[in-house]
């Protein structure tokens, strides 16, 4: 198997960067990290297939000193939950709906979740499946500008130009659907759904917080399940069920109420040198969310949310116009993004 050096563009926290990549087969391998350098498959969570011949990839990385990495990481793809390789491995906590029919999913929901879908309909929410065009880009831009904060964090897509929004949305358009909730022609929620063979994954999930009373989140998710059932998709995934030791978040509770469960999928961490071997043994590759206890993570998350809210409150009390308004004099703001 041949490996080719190339440069690719990737998005990190809403910003685009050009980085070196090693093309192995049909996958791009990139390296991130400062002290601990980890090689991974770019956009792995949205690809239709998993890494082929990882043993060959390991040998290529070891023989490519200019593309130095300490660890190679890659995951199996649902529905393959049994271990395939004899490498150091941990189990990824995937949030997934096992799909048979829409009616079976609907019947398994708690009564309140079904009521929320009906509330959306009664309150005038109309759900449409759309392809990306200039009108949708403008709608996504306005949706992203609903709030500078999401989940207690600064929202990285807030305040972007239309060109930036369009660039953010270019990935996987040949196998994507945009599921859009409208109220009186205003976009109040969107899911970007990526089809990956027999599974589908939610890349963007963005309800408009100022219209929460209309339950757009429930409406667009119900439509996503309906589309997947029509296409005989076996699993609909929505990020992680548990993010390291971070538990009991509002997003996790929303997933549970809407039929998602935890599926454990093997994720491999292959040491490429002595530093990688020690780091894997000491679990340093997990990052802070995988090392700190849940109580500490909760304290830090709550503290960050309070600080961000206080900062935004101070900014809104200043006489100067917010950055969003100044930008709109020459361009329009951002588009669909994840929570």
CATH class of the largest domain: Alpha Beta
Please count the beta strands (DSSP E, at least 2 residues each): 14
Which class do the helix and strand fractions yield?
A: alpha+beta
The figure for the number of domains is 2
The low-confidence parts are 318-339
Shape: globular
Based on the structure given, which CATH architecture of the largest domain is correct? 3-Layer(aba) Sandwich
How many helices? The count is 11
Written overview of the protein:
The chain has 11 helices and 14 strands. It has helices at residues 54-62, 102-107, 111-122, 134-144, 162-168, 216-230, 250-257, 274-282, 288-291, 294-316, 323-327; strands spanning 3-12, 15-24, 27-32, 38-41, 71-75, 89-98, 126-130, 149-150, 153-154, 176-183, 186-196, 199-207, 235-240, 261-271. The strands form 2 sheets. Strands 1-2-3-4-5-14-6-13-12-11-10-7 form a 12-stranded mixed sheet, with helices on both faces. The protein has 2 domains: 3-91 and 263-295, no CATH class; 96-262 and 302-327, Aminopeptidase. By secondary structure, the chain is an alpha+beta fold. Helix content is 32%, strand content 29%.
Offer a concise description of the structure.
This protein is α+β, with helices and mostly antiparallel strands.
Give the arrangement of secondary structure elements:
Elements: E1 3-12, E2 15-24, E3 27-32, E4 38-41, H1 54-62, E5 71-75, E6 89-98, H2 102-107, H3 111-122, E7 126-130, H4 134-144, E8 149-150, E9 153-154, H5 162-168, E10 176-183, E11 186-196, E12 199-207, H6 216-230, E13 235-240, H7 250-257, E14 261-271, H8 274-282, H9 288-291, H10 294-316, H11 323-327
Parallel strand pairs: 4-5, 12-13
Antiparallel strand pairs: 1-2, 2-3, 3-4, 5-14, 6-13, 6-14, 7-10, 8-9, 10-11, 11-12
């Amino acid at each position: 198997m041949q490996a080719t050096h190339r440069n690719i563009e990737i998005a990190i926290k809403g910003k685009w960067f050009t980085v070196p990549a090693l093309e192995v087969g049909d996958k791009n391998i990139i390296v991130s990290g400062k002290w601990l350098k980890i090689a991974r498959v770019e956009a792995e969570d949205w690809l239709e297939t998993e890494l082929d011949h990882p043993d060959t990839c390991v040998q290529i990385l070891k023989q490519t000193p200019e593309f130095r990495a300490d660890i190679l990481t890659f995951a199996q793809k649902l529905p393959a939950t049994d271990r395939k390789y004899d490498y150091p491995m941990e189990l990824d906590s995937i949030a997934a709906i096992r799909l048979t029919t829409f009616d079976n999913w609907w019947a398994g929901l708690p009564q309140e979740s079904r009521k929320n879908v009906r509330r959306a309909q009664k309150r005038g929410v109309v759900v449409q499946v759309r392809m990306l065009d200039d009108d949708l880009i403008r709608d996504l831009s306005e949706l992203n500008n609903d709030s500078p904060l999401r989940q207690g964090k600064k929202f990285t897509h807030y305040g972007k130009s239309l060109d930036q929004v369009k660039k953010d949305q270019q990935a996987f358009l040949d196998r994507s659907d945009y599921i859009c909730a409208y109220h009186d022609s205003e976009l109040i929620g969107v899911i970007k759904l990526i089809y990956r063979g027999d599974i589908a994954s939610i890349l963007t999930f963005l309800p408009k917080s100022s219209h929460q009373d209309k339950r757009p989140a429930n409406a667009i998710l119900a439509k996503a399940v309906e589309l997947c059932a029509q296409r005989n998709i076996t699993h609909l995934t929505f990020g992680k069920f548990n993010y390291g030791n971070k538990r009991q978040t509002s997003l996790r509770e929303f997933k549970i109420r809407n039929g998602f469960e935890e599926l454990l999928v093997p994720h491999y961490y292959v040491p490429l040198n002595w530093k990688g071997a020690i780091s894997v043994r000491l679990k340093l590759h997990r990052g802070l969310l995988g090392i700190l206890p849940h109580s500490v993570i909760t304290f830090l998350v709550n503290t960050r949310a309070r600080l961000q809210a206080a900062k935004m409150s101070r900014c809104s009390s200043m006489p100067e116009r917010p950055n969003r308004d100044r930008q709109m004099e020459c361009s329009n703001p951002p588009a669909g993004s994840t929570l």
